[in-house]
Structures are given as structure tokens and as C-alpha cells.
């Protein structure tokens, strides 16, 4: 990994990168990884695995805002599973290829005016993505290079370490109550495991979207760095995590996360039933419809 950083630094200093269109530290890291094995290219997610370092970089590339649709979540779970089974992979960096947004969270259209059967399928995909990422034995680092509300925040919180662009216009948090919906207990558990009970209680009730500096202050993210350095800083952090023997780190991770995972495993079906009955309510559909309208108005 340090070879990646040395190479990035060299290129940046030599000015070669500045000759590339749209070049910056972030693209340097991406270009380096891209020169390695293209692991998978699906329409919404790109994964490159560096066979020398064992580090995969997963880039979300689903315009306009990387919302977590059924198709996106399915691709995501498949990719994480594939990397999990690959013994040559030791760590995964998750980031966005789109400007200004890491992920807009769950795709609201998947929860709006659809059939109960669709809600079941969608929620299973949300659960599956969480199980795969939260339960991953690999080192996972979120390189948060844009806004990351709700489900986007959940994905980031599932990772072992979070680095966010220090842009104060970017925010992150579980803002579900602002949409008139309630974050499920395992979203809450995941946040509580990151920032503790009190901050989760405030954050969840208020549907708080933390600015990048606020997120650092409460421990929702671990580091803020200039936007162009988010991916190279993630690579740097990754090298520290990979210096620890895998078996010891993996057992420690599993020891910390197993109770949270077991809790959803035990309530998986009930959680789906709750989601379907909650989402199907007229009042919830109305709230979601109004929220989508508000997003559109804000744009015009
Ligand atoms: C008691 C029992 C409980 C049981 C459990 C029950 C229920 C739990 C249920 C659900 C949990 C849900 C978690 C979620 O993740 S909900 C999603 C929350 N997401 C948001 O609030 C983000 C909304 N989006 C934004 O704030 C901005 O888009 C963003 C800051 C991300 C980017 O801003 P930007 O200005 O760049 O882009 P926009 O112009 O706003 O958007 C472009 C385009 O995209 C559409 N869009 C945005 N976000 C979403 C989304 N999450 N899903 C679908 N579509 C989205 C937006 O409407 C624009 O569309 P258009 O105008 O171009 O058509």
C-alpha cells in the first residue's frame, strides 16, 4: 500500500497528473487501482482489485445520486460476497465515482406506490447488503467523498473506518425521521456501535444530518481530509489496518459485531413484516410522496 502512496506522491510532484483531465489525488489512487485487475464491472458499481496489495476499490457509479435501488443493492451484495470469498483480497475501500455524493441512501422510489411483494423483495436486499458488509471479515474503509444521508450513512457506518472530505457542505447521518419514517432497530444498533447511546438518541430523533466537522466531533467519521485526498488517505489508513495479522483482527471484529448481527438474524422475518406494513400505510406513503416533491422543488 505504501508503494501506492509513493507512486501517487511521485506522480503528483512530477506534475504528470496535472496534465491529465480532471486529475487530482483522488484520481491518482483510482488510476493506480484501475491499472490493476478489473475485478468486476457492473452497471452501477465498479470494483478493481490490486493483486499486489490485496486491496479492492469499489466505486459507486449510479447517477444521479447513487441511490440504493433493488438492483444497486443486489450488485453490491454480490460484489462484497465475491471479495469475501477471494483469499487474495484483504481490504476494501468504498467510495463514489460521482461528484458531491457518496450515496443518497435507499432509493425512495422503491418504497413508494409499489406492491407488498416488491417491498418484501426490496427489504430483503437491504438486509442482505447489511449482513454482507457488516459481517465482512475484510478491512473495510469508507472514503466518503460527498453527501451520505440515511442508507448512505448506514453503509459508511458498516465499515471499520471512515474518512470524509472536509467540505462543510457535505453531510452524513440517519435522517429518516425528517422523511416521516423510522430507522429500523439494526440501523440504530449500527449507529450506536459507532457513536454511542446518547448521540444516537439525539441523532435519530432529530433525523440529524451532521456536517463533516460535526461528524468528526461526535466520532461518526474518523478523519477529515481535503476532498482530493479522500481515497489516497483511505489507502494510507488501509496499510495500517493491514499491518495487523488477519486472523487476530478478524476474530476481534467478529467478537464486536456478532451480537448485533445475531439480533437481526433472529428477527429477520419480523423485520420484513414490519417494514412492509409500515411502508404500506397511507400516512407513510403520503410522507414519502411529499418528501420526493420537496426534493424536486428544491431543485427547481
Ligand atoms: C416501527 C417499524 C419500523 C420498521 C422499519 C420501517 C421503515 C424504515 C424505512 C426506511 C429506511 C430508509 C432509509 C433511507 O435511506 S431513506 C432515503 C433518505 N435519503 C435522503 O433523504 C436523501 C435525499 N436526497 C438528497 O438529500 C439529495 O438528493 C442529495 C444531498 C443526496 C444530493 O443532492 P443533489 O442536489 O446533488 O441532487 P438532487 O437534485 O437532490 O437529486 C437528484 C435526483 O435524485 C433524486 N433523489 C435524490 N435522493 C433520492 C433517493 N434517496 N431516492 C430516490 N431518488 C432520489 C432527486 O429526487 C432528483 O430527482 P429528479 O428531480 O432529477 O427527478
Automatic annotation (TrEMBL):
Claim: Magnesium is one of the keywords in the record: no
Family affiliation: Belongs to the enoyl-CoA hydratase/isomerase family.
Gene Ontology terms: biological process: fatty acid beta-oxidation
Highest rank taxon of the organism: Eukaryota
Its biological purpose: Key enzyme of fatty acid beta-oxidation. Able to isomerize both 3-cis (3Z) and 3-trans (3E) double bonds into the 2-trans (2E) form in a range of enoyl-CoA species, with a preference for (3Z)-enoyl-CoAs over (3E)-enoyl-CoAs. The catalytic efficiency of this enzyme is not affected by the fatty acyl chain length.
Pfam family of the protein (one): ECH_1
Biological pathway: Lipid metabolism; fatty acid beta-oxidation
Protein's cellular compartments: Mitochondrion matrix
GO MF term set: delta(3)-delta(2)-enoyl-CoA isomerase activity
PANTHER family membership: ENOYL-COA DELTA ISOMERASE 1, MITOCHONDRIAL (PTHR11941:SF45), ENOYL-COA HYDRATASE-RELATED (PTHR11941)
Subunit structure: Homotrimer.
GO CC entries: mitochondrial matrix
Assigned keywords, A-Z: Acetylation, Fatty acid metabolism, Isomerase, Lipid metabolism, Mitochondrion, Transit peptide
Protein name (database record): Enoyl-CoA delta isomerase 1, mitochondrial
Enzyme class: isomerase
Matches recorded under SUPFAM superfamilies: ClpP/crotonase (SSF52096)
Enzyme Commission identifier(s): 5.3.3.8
Gene3D superfamilies recorded: 2-enoyl-CoA Hydratase, Chain A, domain 1 (3.90.226.10), 6.10.250.170
Keyword Isomerase: yes
InterPro entries for the chain: ClpP/crotonase-like_dom_sf, Enoyl-CoA_hyd/isom_CS, Enoyl-CoA_hydra/iso
Catalytic activity line of the entry: (3Z)-dodecenoyl-CoA = (2E)-dodecenoyl-CoA; (3Z)-hexenoyl-CoA = (2E)-hexenoyl-CoA; (3Z)-decenoyl-CoA = (2E)-decenoyl-CoA; (2E)-tetradecenoyl-CoA = (3Z)-tetradecenoyl-CoA
Amino acid at each position: 500500500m505504501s508503494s501506492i502512496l509513493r507512486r501517487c506522491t511521485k506522480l503528483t510532484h512530477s506534475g504528470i497528473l496535472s496534465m491529465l483531465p480532471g486529475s487530482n489525488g483522488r484520481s491518482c489512487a483510482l488510476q493506480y487501482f484501475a491499472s490493476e485487475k478489473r475485478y468486476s464491472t457492473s452497471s452501477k458499481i465498479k470494483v478493481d482489485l490490486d493483486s499486489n496489495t490485496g486491496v479492492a476499490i469499489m466505486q459507486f457509479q449510479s447517477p444521479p445520486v447513487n441511490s440504493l435501488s433493488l438492483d444497486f443493492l443486489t450488485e453490491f451484495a454480490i460484489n462484497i460476497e465475491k471479495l469475501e470469498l477471494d483469499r487474495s483480497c484483504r481490504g476494501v475501500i468504498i467510495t463514489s465515482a460521482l461528484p458531491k455524493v457518496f450515496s443518497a441512501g435507499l432509493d425512495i422510489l422503491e418504497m413508494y406506490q409499489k406492491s407488498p411483494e416488491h417491498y418484501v423483495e426490496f427489504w430483503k436486499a437491504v438486509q442482505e447488503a447489511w449482513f454482507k458488509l457488516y459481517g465482512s471479515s475484510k478491512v473495510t474503509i469508507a472514503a466518503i467523498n460527498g453527501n451520505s444521508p440515511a442508507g448512505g450513512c448506514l453503509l459508511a457506518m458498516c465499515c471499520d473506518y471512515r474518512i470524509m472530505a472536509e467540505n462543510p457542505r457535505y453531510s452524513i447521518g440517519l435522517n429518516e425521521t425528517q422523511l416521516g419514517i423510522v430507522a429500523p432497530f439494526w440501523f440504530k444498533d449500527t449507529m450506536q456501535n459507532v457513536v454511542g447511546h446518547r448521540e444516537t438518541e439525539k441523532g435519530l430523533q432529530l433525523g440529524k444530518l451532521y456536517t463533516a466537522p460535526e461528524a468528526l466531533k461526535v466520532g461518526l467519521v474518523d478523519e477529515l481530509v481535503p476532498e482530493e485526498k479522500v481515497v489516497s488517505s483511505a489507502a494510507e489508513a488501509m496499510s495500517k489496518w493491514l499491518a495487523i495479522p488477519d486472523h487476530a483482527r478478524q476474530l476481534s471484529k467478529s467478537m464486536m459485531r456478532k451480537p448485533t448481527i445475531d439480533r437481526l438474524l433472529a428477527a429477520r422475518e419480523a423485520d420484513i413484516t414490519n417494514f412492509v406494513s409500515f411502508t404500506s400505510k397511507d400516512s407513510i406513503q403520503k410522507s414519502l410522496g411529499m418528501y420526493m416533491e420537496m426534493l424536486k422543488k428544491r431543485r427547481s
